Amino acid sequence: MSSENPSSNNTAPTTTLIHRPRRLRRTATLRRMVQETTLSVDDLIYPMFVMEGEGQKMEITSMPGCYRYTLDLLLQEIAEVSRLGVGAVALFPVISEIKKDDMGSESYNSEGLVQQTVKAIKQAIPNILVITDVALDPFTTHGHDGIVDENGVILNDPTVEVLVKMAVSQAAAGVDMVAPSDMMDGRVGAIRKALDAEGYIDVRILAYSAKYASAYYGPFRDALDSAPKFGDKKTYQMDPANTREAIKEVALDIAEGADIVMVKPAVAYLDIICQVKNNTQLPVAAYNVSGEYAMIKAAAQMGWIDEKKVILETLTSMKRAGADLILTYFAKEVALILANS
Ligand code: PBG
């Protein structure tokens, strides 16, 4: 009994059915022909962690298979993922405590870790697209994405001023795209204006438009040692219960000049991805965040799920929901899987 033969099931029907959707599922060829969504290596952006020093990589305990790399080893890893077809990396720096302050001023140091890393990547592997994060949390002693006043309030406009300096210094280092992940009001417009004024008209903005105050960021904060020292991020990141607010945030970022809008996290927010997609002509990105990665890794390590299949199914669901691009720690693994399938 060949499952490849669509007409092998020729026994007389016991009932008359006009529609038999299973006809189109009978063979692998047919299933491929009617498949509505495809996951491609072109969709993937690889978030990577860079630290100071040389010749070292440190695995992140809550993110097995993800490392903090020193620049030399980061370059090797990027060269490898580039060979596998991954087109873009998103950089996150691990900043040593002595360089942190209340204002996050290391974030716009022209010789800072991010700026040096961007320069080195663009020199060594010019065809990989480099995206840098614009937010203060890796650089502040308190771990918040913005400047905090004496009452613990995160100040919007003074923070935007620092974010602008940060984005301009990343552009000066040669970055292709900046990604404000801070959720301050008005930062996309302010960054666009400053980039243009400095002549960086082609530096794109990937806006974390609908970024939720999510517990799924836990492992990432371990990776960067950036967990907030007090309070939470609910006065700037969005309430997980809200949809219309996401549409509003996306509309504002588009009006302010975003080139790509993003929803974050992804798995628990597929409905938001779908709605955002229906409300914009811009490309939509989804961030498959650290906690989502950690859950799949943990279950796979326990032998409870088929890791490769679950990864592909999960990322395909984001594409199906409407994501054009996916930031995922699985990027390298998926590139390998797709290359061998
Ligand atoms: C910080 C930032 C976070 C992530 C990306 N940029 C964490 C946070 O907002 O606390 C999370 C990424 C992840 O969990 O994979 N601006």
User: Pairing-aware structural class of the strands and helices?
Assistant: alpha/beta
- What is the string of helix and strand elements? HEEEHEHEEEHEHEHHEHEHHEH
End-to-end Cα distance: 25 Å
Distinct small molecules:
ligand PBG
Describe the protein in words:
This protein is α/β, with parallel strands linked by helices and 341 residues long. The protein is globular. β8, α5 and β9 form a beta-alpha-beta unit. α3 runs parallel beside α4. 44% of the residues are buried. It starts with 27 loop residues before the first helix and ends with a helix. The model has no long low-confidence stretch (mean pLDDT 95). The protein contains 11 helices and 12 strands. The protein has one domain: Alpha-Beta Barrel (TIM Barrel), CATH 3.20.20. It binds ligand PBG. The site of ligand PBG has 12 residues, from α6.
SSE topology sketch:
Layout: H1 28-34, E1 44-51, E2 57-60, E3 63-70, H2 71-83, E4 88-94, H3 113-124, E5 129-134, E6 147-148, E7 154-155, H4 156-173, E8 177-180, H5 187-197, E9 204-211, H6 218-224, H7 244-256, E10 260-264, H8 270-277, E11 284-288, H9 290-301, H10 307-321, E12 325-328, H11 331-339
Parallel strand pairs: 1-3, 1-4, 1-12, 4-5, 5-8, 8-9, 9-10, 10-11, 11-12
Antiparallel strand pairs: 2-3, 6-7
Helix pairs in contact: 3-4, 4-5, 8-10
Ligand PBG is lined by residues 133, 135, 137, 145, 181-182, 217, 220-221, 233, 289-290.
